Amino acid sequence: MRFEILNVEHGFAAYAQANDGGVLLFDCGQSPTCRPSDHLPARGIRVVRRFFVTNYDEDHIGDLPRLRERLVVEVLTRNPSVTSAQLRSLKTPPISPAMRLLLEMIDGYTGEVSTEQLEPQGLRVWTFHNSYPAFTDTNNLSLLPFLD
């Protein structure tokens, strides 16, 4: 198992690569010198088995448009209690290109996938989140993933 936190300065981006090669990506923040869309392909990674959006702010998803151009993202994992329309209403216009793409992904990644297809061999993942509308601030609607 390899786990690497990328230096994107402000925000977050990290990935876990299991022994079977499966990759879990946690956010895709970016900096002028570090982008997951460059870093992962430079390590031979072309497929992200599961992409976790832990926070609905730009500094956690800024590299999403380029990431989607360069890598295959099989499964989107996020706080499921908020719809794309609700999330759009929580954001202050103008909506960034990365947020527009995430909103499209939320609408497009709606099917259930069994746990066996999501986790790389030998890794168990579970998540926690607060629920909308009990919480309406995007920071309080974050997703907390746990790895074992």
Structure characteristics:
148 residues; 28% helix; single chain; alpha/beta; 6 helices; 9 strands; 5-stranded mixed β-sheet; two-stranded parallel ribbon
Rg for CA atoms = 15 Å
Order of helices and strands: EEEHEEHHEEHHHEE
Globular, elongated, flat, extended or rod-shaped: what is the shape? globular
Point out poorly predicted stretches.
Answer: 111-116
Average pLDDT: 91
**Amount of beta strand:** 15-25%
Kindly state the number of beta strands.
9
Largest sheet: 5 strands, mixed
Class computed from helices, strands and strand pairing: alpha/beta
How many helix segments? 6
CA-to-CA gap between the ends? 11 Å
Percent range of helical residues: 25-40%
In spatial order, strands of the major sheet run 1-2-3-5-7
Per-chain topology:
Layout: E1 2-5, E2 14-17, E3 23-26, H1 36-42, E4 47-48, E5 50-52, H2 58-61, H3 64-70, E6 72-73, E7 76-77, H4 84-90, H5 97-108, H6 115-118, E8 125-129, E9 143-147
Parallel strand pairs: 3-5, 4-6, 5-7
Antiparallel strand pairs: 1-2, 2-3, 8-9
Would you give an account of this structure?
There is one protein chain. This protein has six helices and nine strands. The strands form three sheets. It has a five-stranded mixed β-sheet with strand order 1-2-3-5-7, with no helix packed on it. It is of the alpha/beta class and 148 residues long. A hairpin with a 5-residue loop joins strand 2 and strand 3 (23-26). The chain has helices at residues 36-42, 58-61, 64-70, 84-90, 97-108, 115-118, and strands at 2-5, 14-17, 23-26, 47-48, 50-52, 72-73, 76-77, 125-129, 143-147.
